[in-house]
Amino acid sequence: MNASIGIIGMGWVGSSVAISTLHTGICNELLLHDIRGEVAEGDAMDLAHGASFYPPAAVRTASVEEMRRCSAVVVSAGRGGRPGETRLDLLRDNAATIRHIGTTLAGFGGVIVVVTNPVDVLTFAMREASGLPPARVIGTGTMLDTTRLRQRLGEELRIDPRSIHAQVVGEHGDSEVALWSGARAGGTPLRKWPGWSSAREKEISGEVRTAAYEIIRRKGTTNHAIGLVTAALLKWTLRGDRRVLTVSRVHEEVEGIRDVALSLPAVVTTGGAEQVIVPEMSGEERSALRQSAEVLRKAVDSIG
Fold first, then answer.
1. Which helix (H) or strand (E) segment is 61 a member of?
2. Which of 92, 235, 260, 297 has the fewest CB atoms within 10 Å distance of its CB?
């Protein structure tokens, strides 16, 4: 595909996004940027040396201004989480960085994908700073939480995770909501699956919610799965596949939620997360989603 993709922030996550994106073959040019110029140069050199093993694409460094001509820009700039720290604890340190990048990308004609945590609040900040339509500023949101949930259910049921339809919505973080009432395996409601016990749901929700903390405690960061998630999001977006994905975007009005970025299923295409879908939810799940929105609204208010 004749597309140019930019990645801003070449830490662990940015590097994983880069290699995963090259393997998709979605771009013919990958532009890298980091405030530490030599780090971006080193990554560009390292990735270019592997050109024999991924579809043809040029890899080089670029300024943020140069990335304005890209089809999509991934923002993974900012510091990562520390052991024992919540994603919202990162907020003050990363908000200023995101706002600066957003101002630079004002008027950008492509799609911005925000990966930096806390991703929902920073998706809101990026949308505000860039002035772009809400659909074209997408946070990876609960795409990763959703795939973690499907992976765990696949283990439990001993089936391929791709045969499971289950979603996590709301914040990518402590207030996220797993939608058990609408979960299905192979087209069968999960709660009617032979041998399934609803008593497992609370425990699995907890495992999904705290997965990042467990990884950070062991290796200091999470990077591989989010790299794969972001590359898939780029591929499906730029190809116009119209996949329904649990991505974060600013909502103008849905389920009583407005002026906050959080994840709900949305039809994602070349114009971004264009059509938000309200999923099947129980009353308890709907209430939890609104509570998640309130958590995020307070976080947005805290940065002004």
1. strand 58-61
2. 92
Question: pLDDT tens digits for 187-233?
Answer: 999 999 999 999 999 999 999 999 999 999 999 999 999 999 999 99
Residue 87 has pLDDT above 70, yes or no: no
What is the rounded CA–CA span in Å between residue 4 and residue 60?
Answer: 11
Helices (H), the chain: 12-24, 37-48, 91-104, 119-130, 143-157, 199-209, 211-219, 224-238, 283-302
172 is catalytic: yes
Q: Which two tokens stand for residue 259?
A: 């002026």
What would the DSSP string read from start to end of 218-258?
HHS---HHHHHHHHHHHHHHHTT--EEEEEEEEESSBTTB-
CA–CA distance, 123 with 140 (Å, rounded to integer): 9
Q: What is the pTM of this model?
A: 0.95
- Within 10 Å of residue 56's Cβ, how many Cβ atoms? 9
- Per-chain mean pLDDT for the chain: 95
Q: Residues 23, 172, 224, 251: which is the catalytic one?
A: 172
Q: How far is it, in rounded angstroms, from Cα 63 to Cα 57? A: 18
Token pair for 215: 């990884």
**Cα atoms found within 13 Å of the Cα of residue 130, Cβ hemisphere only:** 30
Proportion of the chain above pLDDT 70, given as a percent: 97
Distances (CA, A) of 203 to 176, 177, 199, 200, 255: 14, 13, 8, 6, 27
